[in-house]
Amino acid sequence: MILLTGAAGKTGKTILNRLIPHGVHVRSLVRNEQQAQEIRQLGSTDVAIADLRDQQALSQALDGIHKIYFICPNMTPDEVEIGRSLITLAKQKGIRRFVYHSVLHPQVEEMPHHWQKMRMEECLFKSGLDFTILQPCAYMQNILANWTSIIDEGIYPVPYDTSARISVVDLEDVAAAAEVVLTQMNHSHAIYELAGPQALSQDEMAEVLTQEIGRPVKAVAIDRSDWAVNAQRSGLDENSIDTLLKMFEYYEHYGFQGNPNVLNSLLKKPATKFVDFVKRTHESRLRYGSNGQNGQNHHHRK
Fold first, then answer.
1. Smaller CB count within 10 Å for the chain: N or C?
2. Which residues of the chain form beta strands (DSSP E)?
3. Is a pLDDT exceeding 60 seen at residue 238?
4. Mean pLDDT of 75-81
C-alpha cells in the first residue's frame, strides 16, 4: 500500500486519478474532512486525516504502508524538518520505499523552495531508504489560473519578462512517471528530471494559444509589485509571496530549462508538447463549459 501525502493538491489528485483506475492501493493523506470528501469523490476509499507535523497522527497513517510518495505543500518553510520526521517514522515502521516529489534544479539557491528541496534530497541520501526522486519542471497546467483572461481578453499575464524560456511539463506526464516509479522495480536511488519537450518563451506559448483557441493571445509581463498586492488580497501568506517573487526574478534572468529525454524514457513515448496540452484543454473546456479558473496565478507545482 502507498501513502500519498498532499493528496488533495493538484499534483496529488492527478496521481490518484492515474493510480486508482489501475487498481493500485493508495492511502490518501489530507489535512481536513473537506479535503477527505473531495478525495473520496475521486474514488479513493482509504483516506487519512493528519497534519504532516503531527507525529502521532502521521504514525497512525503509516500503519500498513509499504511505500511513501511525499508531496509537501507549496513553499512550506519547514519542509526539511517535515521530511526528516517522515523518514524517521518510515524507518521505525519498517517502510523501505520512499519517493520524493522534488523540483527541477533544486540546486538554485536564489529560489528558496528549490534550495529546501535539495536539502531534503540530501536527507534521503543519508537515510538508508530505497528512494527515488522526481524533479518536475513548472506545469503546463499553471496557465489554467489565467484561462478566463486568455479566452475572454486574449491576455496571457506573467510576472516576468515574456522572453523567459521554460520547459513546461504536462502534469499528466508527471503523474504517469510517478506511477512507473511506484509500481515498477529498478528505480532505486534514481533521480529523474521531468522536463517538457520544448523550452518555450512566454511569447511562443501565446502564439500556440492563439493558434489553438482561434483568437489573438498576447503574453504580457505584469509588474511584480502589482502581482504581490493581488496575491496578498487573495490570501497568500508573506513567505509564499516572497518565495514566488524570487522565483519570478530568477525566471526573468535565467529562464527554467530542462531536457525531456528522461521523461520520454520513463513514459516509453514522447512527452506531451504544449500545443497538444492546449488542444486537449480547450476541447475539454468547450465540451464541459468550464471557465478554467482554478486558483491564483503561478502558485507553481503542487
1. N
2. 2-4, 26-30, 46-49, 67-70, 97-101, 130-136, 155-158, 165-166, 190-194, 200-201, 218-221
3. yes
4. 94
How sure is the predictor about 286, in pLDDT bands with cuts at 50, 70 and 90?
confident
Helix (H, G, I), strand (E, B) or coil at 64: coil
CA–CA separation, 278 vs 154, rounded Å?
A: 14
DSSP per residue, 104-128? S-TT-TTSHHHHHHHHHHHHHHHH-
Show the domains of the chain with their CATH numbers: 2-139+170-195+258-288 (3.40.50.720)
Burial class (CB in 10 A: 0-12, 13-18, 19+), 267: middle
Q: How far is CA 71 from the centre of its chain?
A: 8
Nearest to 164 by CA among 90, 216, 224: 224
**Residue bearing cell 465540451:** 287
